[in-house]
Amino acid sequence: MATAAAVVILNVGGELFQTTAATLSRAGASSPLASLGPSSPSAPHFLDGDPRLFARLLSFLRHGRLLAGPAPSPALLAEARRFGLDAALLASLSPASAFAPLSLRASALLPLTGRVAPSAVALCPSPPHPASLFAAHGGVVTRFDAALAYRASVLSPLPAVDSLVAASPAIAVAGARDFPGAHLCRFSDDASAAAAAPEVLSWPGSPSATVLSMATTTAAGPGAASPPWLFSSFESARRNSSAVVAFDLNSLSPVAEIGRKEVFGADVEAAIPATKLAWLGGNGLLLAAGSHSGPAGVVGDIRLWDVRASATVPVWEVREKQDCFADVAASDALSSLFKVGGASSEVFMADLRRLGNGGGIGLEPWVCIGDSQRAAAVASSGRKERNGCRIECYCRWVFVARGADVEVWSQVELAPEAGGKMLMRRNWVGSGPFMEVGGGEEGEKEKEKAKIVSWAFGGSRMALVRAGKRSVEIWDSAPVPICANP
Amino acid sequence: MRTGGGGGRSGTVKQLNVGGKLFSLEASSLSLSLSLDSPSPTPTFVDRDPALLSAVLAAIRAPSSAPAFRAHVLLEEAHFYGLHAQLLAALSPPPLRGFSVSLTSTLSPASEPFPTALAPHHDGSLCLAHGAGQVTYYSPALDHLTTFRTHLHRITSLRQLSSSLAVLGSVSAPGLHVYDFLSGQHVASVQWLDPTDTRVSKAKVVAIAARPAADITDKNSPILATFECPHRENCILAVDPVTLKPTQEIGRQSGSAAKSSTPVRVVHLQTLGLVFASSVSSGAFGYSGYMRLWDIRSGDVVWETSEPGGAGRSSRFGDPFADADVDVKQQAIYKVCSKSGDLAVADLRCLGNDPWVYMSSGPRGSGGGYGSVLHCHRSQVFVSRKDGLEVWSRLEEQRHNTGDLVEQAGTKETPKSNGIDERVYRSCYVDTEEDTKGGMIQMMEGGGDRLFVTREETQGVEVWETSHLVGAISLCSHFPLVDME
Question: Does an H or E element contain B269, and which?
Fold first, then answer.
């Protein structure tokens, strides 16, 4: 309730709206709405616009989200852009706070053009930006906006993109294992404008080096003030040297070269290049991990780098010999490292806070949170094949891709009287690998599920790319209405 | 200018200016902060969405039409205006009549949607345990609110304790656990421990009777949970619902024989001060089980029957019960026979050696009573069989509503020696033949005016409601029968 003096009266396309200056100020300082002050009933502010669309925008300002209807129409987005509301509107469509892995449902399939199945997918980290989505198919990188309504494509010189990172809603960086350099793909907000040719970021030490993996710093955390960095793991064309190079994404210049390694002779295992990079914003650490499969089995290195302290000596490192990781991930919220065993395919956890003092060689940092007996049995049997599992952390959850299904580990905290323990518990996203008994059609669909090639998390969404499917699968945890029986 | 609320009755009418649109509402129905505002010639200005208020008012007036907004959005808005209770009443289904219910929706959680336990509340909300230890909460309007993971790997018993607490237990992990289902936080654990007997430890929970889901009346009744030790010793533990500490041990049994095995169903009969416990086990030789009534104060057995054989013999030899439940309001025990599939009733007020009255009328399938589930809700008895779900209702219950059935049943129905006349019961099939193809019914719970049903190896929970909507199927594609504005 507000006194009559504080009421702002708007005449939008002939229809009168009444609201308060406080509501309008939520549009942000750059919006023309924020400057409108209280007005008398006889002289309302006139805005030229569609009153029906404006009613939805005003409702958005009041509630912070759109209430009715599915995705916003292009007309609504255009109207929002006029009032400087489009960024906030897009960001509200998929807020990270609404992400709940146990409520994820397959919500959309985004078709891609051409004949090449997508090889990589990336979602923009959503707290600073709307969660726009990038997918690479062949040498083409396509961007979908947060409303999943518009797309734009850029052609990169890469024959096929192996790693893709979203730096901002307008910039994606693509790299390949068989083509030098990391390529910046810029998308302008204006869909009609032609995109400029991609810029190339390369390792100054070896310009022909190819990209194995990339990661960006997220704006959240203590590093928010500094410009965003891009980490890229390079391997020289002759495969005898490798390094992680940090680039400043604003100036596009290399900032640091981390952990440069050279191979002398045939001692390949002494210098395994990093194939997985992850940024731990809360601790300011970079996780770099790589593995090498040789005749004696799979050997891997996991290193944590403090970029500010030293570029040559890692803060912590471990060499994996038994049950070497298939994939490693780091979680800020749980302050832990997670790996999925390459032989056992069980999930292991290592507490970041206990790595420092227990960093001795003999001490095993990993604690199995899955079936530890099975993990031990497999490790001792010395299986050498790899399983292709992937692991990723998002918010407070750990996701594991096993073939066509996604598994999620959630933390359960018991009450202090009951011991106060933190337990990690396993769940499936969706119905998991269970086969449907009843519905014939559904059963057919389950059988069709193909292996997950690439995945990404952002906002309230998970994006999956499956082998041989020419579309991106979107899973959204925004509440879905009850499915009514026909 | 729009008007709403109030109808034509006299009362203080409050003018509201909601975002530039005028509404007239009865002041008594509005929330305190809005109605207390001094009556002035200019309407009170509220900076909110007018479209939402008109949607709320439309839903209260005509709950049948398809709303433009999701129910929880409307409920949130109604909360501000103080119209929450009115809207919720309009959105909830009409009184449950077993003979005229239909399948209205299927609730399917997003992850691992195989239900393992159901806990409806009297307001029509539902707590659902599914998959590997996950709990999903559906609001009284059956909107999905939260899903969280508990530390248990399979929840086999679940009850709602209050508007935000749920008690749950598992037959695979010890203890009774209390979770806040809105935040997903573990609140407390209750263990059955005996300082004089160290063997009593790591007891698992088999069944829980919290405040009856169907009744608002009793507020402070204890949570009753049956615990079973690894060496099969068992008891019913009464737990204080406020302090969440065990207060009393009822009916401690050794568990060494079928007659003393852990009860799988517990019902608290608060008005009588009794606890009903029943245990059923089935094997290659058919069913066997017992029913017992424990006095909650003295801890003694008041009445018991065990089938086959034993004291309190049934006149039907070789036809032991497959499931039993108590109708608290009618004060009657119902059982379904495993071989013949007959339903039998016993009056709680005059239990004797053989108190059972067997019903013979009504449709009966070939399946008998094997795998039957029996559930009493709203003075109706729902019995599932292999070939369908049937409901037994009492004609006298309808007398107040319809009135034209009085002659048939009412006059003759004078309390006889055992108080129960089988002629007042009528049975009907609830579901159609197509519905039974989904599989055998595994669990069945009534909550408010809804019946929740899960089927074996089937995803999701079926919601059965009585509906006043015709749901006519239009044969002419150009003109819809009901204007969906």
Answer: strand B265-269
- B193–chain A Cβ distance below 8 A for any pair: no
Residues of chain B numbered 106-125 and touching chain A (CB < 8 Å): 106-114
Closest Cβ opposite residue B107 in set A2, A428, A482 = A482
Domain ranges of chain A: 4-93, 102-476
Cβ atoms of B128 and B116 within 8 Å: the answer is no
Q: Domains in chain B, ordered, with CATH?
A: 13-91 (3.30.710.10), 109-262 (2.130.10.10)
- Among B20, B186, B439, whose Cβ lies nearest the Cβ of A415? B186
How far does A72 lie from chain B, in Å, by closest CA? 15
Nearest to A454 by CA among A171, A93, A213, A167: A213
Cβ-based contacts of B103 with chain A (< 8 Å):
485
Q: Residues 309 to 348 of A: which have CB under 8 A from any B CB?
A: none
Coil, helix or strand at residue B278: strand
Which tokens hold the place of A54?
């404006």
Asked if the peptide bond before residue B308 counts as cis, ω within 30 degrees of 0, the response is yes
Q: Are B156 and A385 in contact (CB under 8 A)?
A: no
CB pair distance less than 8 Å for B131 and A19: no
DSSP state of B478: S
Q: What kind of fold does domain A102-476 have according to CATH?
A: Methylamine Dehydrogenase; Chain H (2.130.10)
Q: Are B246 and B190 in contact (CB under 8 A)?
A: yes
Task: Report the residue from A62, A102, A432 with minimal CB separation from B48.
Answer: A62
Provide the chain A residues 353-372 that lie in CB contact (below 8 A) with chain B. none
Residue with tokens 């996780």: A287
* Environment class of B259 (CB within 10 Å of its CB; exposed 0-12, middle 13-18, buried 19+): middle
DSSP 8-state class, residue A4: G
Of B69, B104, B147, the CB nearest to A67: B69
Contact partners, residue B450, CB within 8 Å, separation at least 6: B93, B96, B120, B124, B126, B463, B464, B465
Spatial neighbors of B432 by CB under 8 A, at least 6 apart, are none
Tell me the three state secondary structure of residue A76.
helix
Residue B390 one-letter amino acid: E
Alpha helices in B218-373 (DSSP H): none
Domains A4-93 and A102-476 share a fold: no
Determine which of B33, B49, B135, B145 to mutate to test the interface with A (most A C-beta atoms within 10 Å): B49
Q: How far apart are CA A389 and CA A410, in angstroms?
A: 18
Q: B186, B244, B462: best mutation site toward chain A, by most A Cβ within 10 Å?
A: B186
A1 CB neighbours in chain B (<8 A) are: 33-34, 37, 44-47
Q: For residue range A243-287, what is the model confidence (pLDDT) as tens digits?
A: 999 998 888 888 889 988 888 877 777 788 999 999 888 888 899
**Phi, psi for A354 (deg, rounded to 5):** -105, 5
3-state secondary structure of B200: coil
- What CATH architecture is A4-93? 2-Layer Sandwich (3.30)
Is the whole model's pTM more than 0.90, yes or no? no
CB contact under 8 A, B112 and A55: no
Task: Encode B154-177: b = buried (16+ Cβ within 10 Å), e = exposed.
Answer: bbbbbbbbeeebbbbbbeebbbbb
**Splitting chain A (486 residues) into consecutive groups of 10 residues, what average pLDDT does each group show?**
69 88 84 81 84 88 76 80 84 82 88 91 77 90 85 89 88 91 81 60 89 78 63 90 89 88 80 90 87 84 86 86 88 90 89 67 76 83 76 92 91 86 89 56 56 90 91 78 32
Query: Which of A 397-416 lie inside 8 A of B, CB atoms?
Result: 408, 410, 412-415
